[in-house]
Design brief:
Elements: H1 2-21, H2 24-77
Length: 78
């Protein structure tokens, strides 16, 4: 019987210590860090999408420019 009561006692004491460790300030700091990391990840994700989109647009403009130059040189030779 003493083993069960010792386990229960240690469990309750450990839980109390853990709950006492988590203060409002610690909770606010933890939430702030989580929000900071989530904001960074979201910004990074959308920045990469933007970079990809701008690269594709640049490649299309370069292709159009090359086609335009080919048409001009073809017209000059005719």
């Amino acid at each position: 019987m003493t083993d069960k009561s010792a386990i229960a006692s240690y469990s309750v004491n450990g839980s109390t210590a853990l709950i006492g460790f988590v203060t409002v300030e610690l909770l606010a700091i933890t939430i702030g860090i989580i929000m900071c990391l989530a904001t960074y990840a979201t910004t990074l994700y959308f920045q990469r999408r933007r970079d990809k989109r701008e690269l594709e647009e640049s490649e299309r403009k370069l292709e159009i420019h090359d086609l335009h130059l080919q048409a001009l040189t073809k017209n000059e030779t005719n």
